[in-house]
Amino acid sequence: MSTTFAHRNLPRLLLQARESVMAHARPSLREHGLSDQQWRVLRVLGEHGTVETGRVAREAYLLGPSLTGVLARMERDGLIRRERDPMDQRRTVVEAAPKGLKLVEKLSRTIEAHYQWMEKSLGKRKLAELYELLDAVIELEQP
After folding, report:
1. 51 belongs to a structural domain
2. pTM of the model
3. Are strands 80-85 and 88-96 parallel, antiparallel or unpaired?
4. At CB < 8 A and 24+ separation, what contacts does 73-81 make?
5. What is the CATH number of the domain that holds 99?
6. What is the pLDDT of residues 35-85, one digit of tens each?
């Protein structure tokens, strides 16, 4: 017995699109010894500076236990620094170390070049529409 669906499998398509985009970034990440998760953390820190770990988890889409392991490895490798939040000792804040910031700078050029290629291939309007549609879907599904 098979079930007929009226709509395409949106979660699968979004995952497939993510994997397609990441296929261009992964070789550069691996060249620098970074996992996808480590790059997401560095990108958050590169965009926002010193960040509370809860925000890193939310913006990098990592569960707490996974984030703990990722941050431990990144700290060991000299990519980040962690310390207690001076305003609230119960919280931990994270910032990119100089080595991590250098990687963000270097990798951002590769990633931005890929986005420019996408913009040229799809057209500026279509890429903007894609961003708008994704933002709308995200907003629509918020509790």
Report:
1. yes
2. 0.87
3. antiparallel
4. 73/38, 74/38, 74/41, 74/42, 74/100, 77/33, 79/38, 79/42, 79/103, 80/41, 80/42, 80/45
5. 1.10.10.10
6. 999 999 999 999 999 999 999 999 999 998 899 999 999 999 999 999 998
